[in-house]
Amino acid sequence: MVRLKEIWLHEHVPVFVRPITILVLSNNSGLIEPILNAVSLHQIKKNSKLSSRNYFLREFGTERSEQYLTAVKNFVQSNAAYSIICYLLQVKDRHNGNILLDDEGHVIHIDFGYMLSATPKNLGFESSPFKITQEFVDIMGGLQSDMYGYYKILILQGLLAARKHMDKLMPIVEIMQHGSQLNCFSKGNVTLGLRERFHLNMTDEQLEFNVEKMVESSLNSLTTRVYDTFQYYTNGISK
Q1: Residues 6 or more apart whose Cβ sits within 8 Å of residue 226
Q2: Domains observed in the chain
């Protein structure tokens, strides 16, 4: 994640990602940096009883206010970054308890215990490229809004930048998987799938079309809704 942030800064892609510092203490323990001034979407929905868009209006002001518009822009730029990260690394367990919202409107994903080849309980519910819901789109202003279009443009720009610097990203995974006992490497070599997700064989125009398809399939994903429902009934996590 840190390397992706560096790449996006270098390539001037205006997305937001919040890396988390982890101090490893042993092969099964460590310290994780807390994210300050942020609360999970689960807690927001549970405590406010509001839709995500109405919560934004309550926290950041009217739709035309500078604070609200800035918060929506932050929301879009961070969603684009984490959409790319979740797609490339196949991050799973994206329920609302693992997605935070900070006091500036940024989305911040936490808990990367399931990625690459690992899924919670091997259920395989989350088959969409990443998580984008209608509530997220409502915050952006709807399917026909400029900010929703901006979200898709940022995903394209972020993927193009990541693809350009793929040689800086692949070795990290290749080195980590050798002799690793981590669940994410439990199904063998995962680098081939990761390499394929950079779509080296696609032109920029073909990749743009592919991004459109990925966003549409993620937005309309039945498996995402099923997993959110599963988490609601088994763990009480708000949908």
Answers
A1: 125
A2: 38-235 (1.10.1070.11)
